[in-house]
Amino acid sequence: MDTLNKKARIVPYHHPAAGWGALKAVAVNLIKEKVAGGNYRTLLRQNQPDGFDCPGCAWPDRQHASTFEFCENGVKAVAAEATTKRVTPEFFARHTVAELMAQSDYELEQHGRLTDPMVYDAASDRYVPIAWEGAFELIARHLKGLEDPGQAAFYTSGRTGNEAAFLYQLMVRMYGTNNFPDCSNMCHEATSRGLPGTVGIGKGTVTLDDFEHADTLLIFGQNPATNHPRMMGELRECARRGAAIVSINPLRERGLERFADPQSPLEMLTMSGTRIATTFVQPRVGGDFALIKGVAKRVLELDDAARAAGAERVLDMDFILAHTAGFEAFAADLRAQAWAPLERESGLSREAIENLAAIYVAGKRVIATWGMGLTQHKNSVAAIQMLSNLMMMRGNIGREGAGLCPVRGHSNVQGNRTVGIEDKPTPAFLDRLGRVFDFDPPRAHGYDVVETIEAMEDGRVKVLIGLGGNFAMATPDTPRTWEALRRCALSVHITTKLNRSHLVHGREALILPTLGRTEIDIRGGVAQGVTVEDSMSMVHVSYGMNKPASPNLMSETAIVARMAHATLGSAKVDWLYYADDYASIRDAIEAVCEGFENYNRRIAQPGGFHLRVASREREWKTTSGKANFIVARIETDTPINWARQRHGDDVMVLMTTRSHDQYNTTIYALDDRYRGVFGQRRVLFINPADLARMGLRAGERVDIFTVWDDEVERRADGFLLVEYDIPPGCLGAYYPETNPLVPLDSVGDVSNTPTSKSIPVILRRSRVAATGAA
Ligand SMILES: Nc1nc2c(c(=O)[nH]1)N[C@H]1C(S)=C(S)[C@@H](COP(=O)(O)OP(=O)(O)OC[C@H]3O[C@@H](n4cnc5c(=O)[nH]c(N)nc54)[C@H](O)[C@@H]3O)O[C@H]1N2
Ligand SMILES: Nc1nc2c(c(=O)[nH]1)N[C@H]1C(S)=C(S)[C@@H](COP(=O)(O)OP(=O)(O)OC[C@H]3O[C@@H](n4cnc5c(=O)[nH]c(N)nc54)[C@H](O)[C@@H]3O)O[C@H]1N2
Ligand SMILES: [Mo]
């Protein structure tokens, strides 16, 4: 526990983001992981045309990437994969699963790379070795034994390359289900569900080049210095050009204040850095919808005033008339909208909202970016659609230097969706898939993450197969989810590293160790590359260059192909042929998915190619054939408001977020440098006024309880109170340790995403002794 950690301390950070801090952390990481020798090459070739795609995040690369185009967190991801530590059969022989359960996620990660396929042995409560063939037979026996294919669910985390993902969805659909829970269900689902209704496609409309032309950037709910460090380089260039950069975030994220480019000797030597955000707007947690609607209302007011004065219109009427539908109803709704609820729900004064509107209308080329701060709430789909409305009012979509820019997480999460990892596939996609592979794909929608957990709970799903990820830790309502996982007849995880999902397992369980993206993947005597699609729809190829962590690893693509061969046979699809020639899988993707013409040829070019996004070219694939303005009202009937009605103002809203030294459920180390947290993770950011109001002090520990409408007690204990620049009534803490607080049925409208950024909670002073770490 944190209290035992002598190094735990809270020290506000005053330096620019990146800069020395980042380089030092890089060096420490390299030494710690003992990869300094041969693997420097790995780091230098990362994100190079002939190198491999960084498994760190989905931010795109410049084609002219220098050898320094890797960032601290990319280095961490690569170093973590290149560790020399191994989790061998001997390791498993030494530890029962119960013993491993007692270790922290950080400790589990530190054991290193998995080396051999393992099967759970209930008699000894240990994982024991199994031959690959035996593992595939076990999977096939279970899958063939189910009464209904819908009793199996197939999870995907977003690191998997297009080739493995495509084969996986083909196998699963031939098997007979669309049960594809994926990390996206917990991530950018609100984007993927929200944007099609407004602009016709659930992807962003900008490319990196647009950042060179933008004069205004609105950054909603993102912490890029930690989660997308390469985005900082882009923001730095925008800032130096004089662009207005606004961070819209309840937390004033230090990492967005100043940034020193590791490639700029001057900035590094003077520790100066470039000022990044010109304005910080701090709505309360979950207040973005009301804020954006308020800004839209103000834009309309400004347009009215301009018209009255005979001045230039504020609205882009050419765009609105030529390209959109529903503007009249939208404008009428904005006019009818009173200011008071907008102020109350956003937590911002009318003046603050008007100020943001003034910045927005001053911009001729505006890019709006967003991350998890916008997507993990009850009203996230509405908020994203309102943002799209706002951008459409001034024609900021489909124009150079302007557009919508959802910033995705996992390096290939967007590609996975493109090639068919989707629990709600379109009929058009299924038609093409069925035609190319001569079968009748299942049409009924499958289960997403939350539905899969509910189905495991009541026995409708009996087999869970995970292609990457850490299902047990990434998902909400931890004790309930774990119970559901333990009811499965079989759980299978195709992973690189030991994690909690291996330990919270079904009656039978397999760990299938796989190659990471950094590793050489030889199949059929040839080094194979995998392709990925970044957050801006650039598709490129990635070749590993490190020696595999163990001779007994298999690539994800080969594992999927062998699973399919064992389960379905190869009469219809020659799975094993595909496993040995990824180019032929790309040919199949080209035949099924739109926009992949000449796939193999186009990935051979440096930087790959841009997968066409129709909305970027102002082609609207909506039912109206236009970009739709969408009317949405402020919802006051929310879990937070119910909880406050019942429990008064003691109810606070908790957001769960990432620290600097973690990658989702992987905890690399215990620091969150830019937020000034060191050596610990059980911290709770709180406004000083709330501390005073509740008679609490920074440095004390509290237990957090969820306020929900069922009888279940949801709690997380022993969090250190840390004073922070966060609006009153709002709290911030790290995930995944706060996932026990997220009720499984607290989900976003339409997206069904767990509302992990807006949990109604109350605090009680812990009985655990306080430390002096304040
Ligand atoms: N180093 C590192 N890189 C990563 C990851 C990682 O864990 N570590 N994860 C990857 C993945 S899968 C993803 S999805 C991305 C996530 O990257 P981000 O989208 O940056 O995700 P978070 O850190 O969860 O939260 C982002 C921000 O949302 C703000 N926020 C919380 N609630 C609200 C709100 O109501 N409104 C607004 N406007 N803001 C709010 C928080 O203060 C925080 O600054 O990063 C990817 N990259
Ligand atoms: N409370 C709360 N919960 C959240 C979030 C939040 O902000 N708050 N964020 C959500 C988001 S945005 C996401 S994306 C999910 C993340 O959910 P996941 O994607 O399921 O989780 P990760 O932690 O990224 O998965 C890490 C594991 O992936 C395996 N792995 C790593 N690299 C590879 C590889 O190349 N191939 C394979 N096959 N396996 C590999 C390793 O074994 C590692 O232990 O969590 C979600 N959960
Ligand atoms: Mo994510």
UniProtKB/TrEMBL annotation:
Single GO MF descriptor: molybdopterin cofactor binding
Molybdopterin dinucleotide-binding domain residues: 652-759
Domain Molybdopterin oxidoreductase intervals: 113-494
The entry's keywords: 4Fe-4S, Iron, Iron-sulfur, Metal-binding, Molybdenum, Oxidoreductase
Cofactor(s), by name: Mo-bis(molybdopterin guanine dinucleotide); [4Fe-4S] cluster
Family matches, as CDD domains: MopB_CT_ydeP, MopB_ydeP
Listed GO CC annotations: membrane; oxidoreductase complex
GO biological process: cellular respiration
One Pfam family matching this protein: Molybdopterin
TM regions (residue ranges): none
Family: Belongs to the prokaryotic molybdopterin-containing oxidoreductase family.
Protein's name according to its UniProt entry: CbbBc protein
